[in-house]
Amino acid sequence: MNAREYRYVGPADIFEQARPGERGPAIRSHGDLAGWLAGQTAQDAGEPFTYVVDLTGTLRLAPQRSEHVACAGREPVLGAGEITFLASGGGWTVSEISNQSTGYCPDPSSWTAVAAALDRAGLERPPEFTHPIVFRRCRRCRQRNIVKDDHYVCAVCGGTLPTVWNMDETHAR
Q1: In this predicted structure, which of 79-83, 108-112, 169-173 has the lowest mean pLDDT?
Q2: What pLDDT, on a 0 to 100 scale, did the predictor assign at position 126?
Q3: Vertex 103, ends 5 and 105: CA angle to 5°?
Q4: What separation in angstroms does the CA of 52 have from each of 17, 22, 122, 150?
Q5: In the chain, what is the straight-line distance between the N-terminal and C-terminal CA atoms, in Å?
Q6: How far apart are CA 51 and CA 69, in angstroms?
Q7: How distant, in Å, are the alpha carbons of 4, 105, 160, 172 from that of 99?
Q8: DSSP string, 30-79
Q9: How far, in whole angstroms, is CA 67 from its chain's centroid?
């Protein structure tokens, strides 16, 4: 099964601020991660960082308050969210990870691509997202929603939200 590609669905002004082609550094090994974390002086290494998995299946990182679309260089992704690392045995392990990206709004099923990227980099990880988020777009008012407790109702207009991922729909149905 091929991984779903997620294109940016967030605010246009944030997309326009991102520079095409400028992406977060590729993390392909423990060494890449350790080197990148050592250079992050503005953020505690125990706080969450922004990540994307690009279309080649490579993990890319950015500081926490960075936009996912900037980390991805405006490109579609296979996964996006926040990731936290824990120092462990002289290296780093993934302690928490989510699909929390309101720019790409990836489905929890993106875990397959995210897990594969972490495995290729040799990073120990949880068996699934530690904080999965379900995103849906309201077909009535077009607003992005986070579904909580399986309550598929739009927080803006009260419309019924679809039970399947639909964030990339471009027109009302």
Answers
A1: 169-173
A2: 98
A3: 55
A4: 17, 13, 17, 26
A5: 27
A6: 10
A7: 14, 7, 23, 25
A8: HHHHHHHHHT-TTS-TTS-EEEEE-TTS-EEEE-TTS-HHHHTTT--BSE
A9: 10
Q: Give, as one character, the DSSP assignment of residue 134.
A: E
Residue 10 corresponds to which amino acid? Answer: G
Residues 61-68 have a mean pLDDT of: 94
Q: What is the largest CA-CA distance in the chain?
A: 53
Amino acid symbol at 112: T
pTM of the shown model = 0.93
For residues 93 and 86, is the Cβ–Cβ distance under 8 A?
yes
Report the pLDDT value the prediction gives residue 173, as an integer from 0 to 100. Answer: 38
pLDDT band at 172 (very low <50, low <70, confident <90, very high): very low
- Please give the mean pLDDT across all residues of the chain: 93
